[in-house]
Amino acid sequence: MPKTWFITGASSGLGLEMTQQLLTQGHNVVAAIRRAGALTKLAQEYRERLDIVQLDLVEPERIASAVRDAFQRHERIEVIVSNAGYGLFGAAEELTTEEIDRQIATNLAGSIHLIRAALPFLRKQGGGRIVQVSSEGGQIAYPGFSLYHATKWGIEGFVEAVAQEVAPFGIDFIIAEPGPTGTNFGANLVRAKPMDAYDETPAGAVRRAITDGSFEIKGDAGRSVSAIISAAESKTPPLRLALGSTAYSSISQALSARLSALEAQRGVANSADRQDL
């Protein structure tokens, strides 16, 4: 049966790919975009099933009204996809206050405001599904992406808590964690002004890899989106969905290392308990 999906960041990258795939499959899409006119061709082709909304995630009041209006226009919205965001690259010391604030406002606070705005309507209709597009960077970290990771680790913690809060209402979540994927993420990457001091550091090495194209990208956007849609349409979706062999390998190694480090601290951890219990 056709469903209605609400997707932020629908004009490029995974958001655009998802919008196209869903329309092709016969679904309805409320496509939230920042730049007016970005989906003109799709609008002409799918006039009856594509509802375009202009939205910038740094405007919380606009997020709330856009979600409210979308639910009023459509009888039911089954899936909310929090996808909008961008990458900020630079060693922490290289970043400006403005770059930091906008990264957090868009990737973290914007996603939080979107989810909070949708919850009352999903509760009222008896349930629904929220897909939060995160990254392998929500569980691992590359040097030079500290603020990007801060937003992804942050939104994953938020979602994991909220998922427990709203499960009784029939609302569930999927955290999609793609690895490096063939989208326009790199082209839209905001880069801080580099400092010479970081040239011969891990952050400098990653900067060179991005610049010279040697940063390996294995993920396929179409296949990744198909996997997200399939998970969202399944009866019991996973809370976290790793996408791509790089994401699987990186997350697996990071979790194994953290677990090993934790086990080594068992005695210290237990020694910190109260002794009068």
UniProtKB/TrEMBL annotation:
Specify the signal sequence span: none
Q: Which Pfam families match?
A: adh_short (PF00106)
Keyword vocabulary terms for this entry: Oxidoreductase
- InterPro entries associated with the record: NAD(P)-bd_dom_sf, SDR_fam, SDR_oxidoreductase
Keyword Oxidoreductase carried by entry: yes
- Which domain of life does the UniProt lineage start with? Bacteria
Q: Which family does it belong to?
A: Belongs to the short-chain dehydrogenases/reductases (SDR) family.
What's the protein here called? SDR family oxidoreductase
The species this protein belongs to is Rhizobium lentis
